[in-house]
Amino acid sequence: MSAAAVIPRAGRVPIALTIAGSDSGGGAGIQADLKTFQELGVFGTSAITGLTAQNSVGVHGIWPAPVSSVEAQIEAVLSDIGTDAVKTGMLCSVEIVKLTARLLRKYRSSHIVVDPVTLSKHGSALLEGDAVSAMCTELLPLAELVTPNIPEACLLLGWQESDIRSVSAMTEAARSLLQYGPRHVLLKGGHLDDQAANETAIDVLVSQEDPSRHLLFSAPRIATVHTHGTGCTTASAITAFLALGMQMEEAVGSAKRFTHQAISSAVPLGAGIGSLWHAAHRTL
Ligand SMILES: Nc1ncnc2c1ncn2[C@@H]1O[C@H](COP(=O)(O)OP(=O)(O)O)[C@@H](O)[C@H]1O
Ligand SMILES: Cc1ncc(COP(=O)(O)OP(=O)(O)O)c(N)n1
Fold first, then answer.
1. Which residues form the Pyridoxamine kinase/Phosphomethylpyrimidine kinase domain (predicted)?
2. Mean pLDDT on 213-240
3. Is 2's pLDDT higher than 60?
4. Is 116 in a helix, a strand, or coil?
5. N or C end of the chain: which has fewer CB within 10 A?
6. 52 belongs to the catalytic site
7. Does some domain include residue 190?
8. Looking at the domain assignment, is residue 6 inside a domain?
9. What is the distance in A from the centroid of ligand 1 to the CA of 68?
10. Which of 188, 200, 233, when mutated, tests ligand 1's pocket best, judged by the most ligand atoms within 8 Å of its CB?
């Protein structure tokens, strides 16, 4: 993405809505999503599903937002401003998952990217256990894309994490996730634990149109611990590129490059896992 893309364009600015949680540390959640939208020249709106007290060493508290407040935020945005694309992140509870699906159906939203956030990198639960099946039955059928990492894919499928130890197992899992109805599945390989993954970070894209075909998105693995926000940034960058009118394959490839640049310039803030630098694409 060139610097020209961050200059507001004449005419209507593309809009993206993020329905996600707040990360006080600024690296993930709503904060990562809005930074990404802005960097990519898309006007970001938000509905905050919950608050987290979070920093580089962990998640110190989670407070789901009242369901009525999430409803009022989404209604306020969609009934007046509208949107070209929607990203969902931390949805906290079965009630918020169901509400989100109901409102996205009501407003016939398109370009819905579901990041099925369940755990933070520090292992804190960001989605209640009984919300997983609601996500599969209510939200995934509406999704143009779902973007699980390996632990999330296993949770959605009822598999063990040890079941995905290779790119071919990732491909099989991605194909299995199509059963829930999303148009595309991007299974991210940041957590892949095999020989090849020491050098490359590989993601797999499969689509309902032709489930027998799969595309690999590969980049050199950056040797860093500072990867807080990689998942949120990937999903929100894809959402922004869809809002800008790209097709899915191009949007995923462009988002992979944007996120890779942001990891390569990550900021080692705090004593633990530092966060991505979303402005890296301006100078790299
Ligand atoms: N160290 C790394 N170097 C390069 N790319 C990475 C690295 N870690 C993760 N990625 C990429 O970042 C994106 C998010 O990855 P992943 O860690 O699997 O998701 P999550 O942040 O949701 O756990 C994927 O495109 C993955 O390939
Ligand atoms: C509020 C909030 N939402 C989502 C996440 C998970 O973000 P992700 O990009 O997957 O990054 P890590 O937590 O894995 O670093 C979060 N932590 N907080």
1. 23-276
2. 97
3. no
4. coil
5. C
6. no
7. yes
8. no
9. 34
10. 188
Give a yes or no: residue 183 inside a domain.
yes
Q: Residue 74 belongs to what domain range?
A: 13-277
- The answer to whether 30 touches 21, Cβ cutoff 8 Å, is yes
- Our answer on whether the CB atom of 36 is closer than 6 Å to any ligand 1 atom is no
The tokens for 147 are 């973007």
Choice among 52, 230, 234, 259 that is catalytic? 230
The reply to whether 147 belongs to the active site is no
List strands edge to edge, sheet with 184-187: 58-64, 43-55, 15-23, 85-88, 112-114, 145-146, 184-187, 200-207, 214-220
187-195 mean pLDDT: 86
Question: Cα separation of 254 and 233, whole Å?
Answer: 12
pLDDT band at 120 (very low <50, low <70, confident <90, very high): confident
State the total domains in the chain.
Answer: 1
CATH code (residue 114): 3.40.1190.20
Of these residues, 21, 44, 189, 229, which one is catalytic?
229
ipTM of this complex > 0.90? Answer: yes
Instruction: Give the Å distance between the CA of 189 and the centre of ligand 1.
Output: 6
Task: Say if 1 falls within a structural domain.
Answer: no
Say which amino acid occupies 130: D
Query: Looking at residue 117, what is its pLDDT?
Result: 95
- Taking the CA of 149 as reference, the closest ligand is 1
Q: How confident is the model at residue 284 (pLDDT cuts 50, 70, 90)?
A: confident
Q: Which atom of ligand 1 is nearest to the CA of 190?
A: 18
The per-residue pLDDT for 257 is 98
In the annotation, is 188 catalytic?
yes
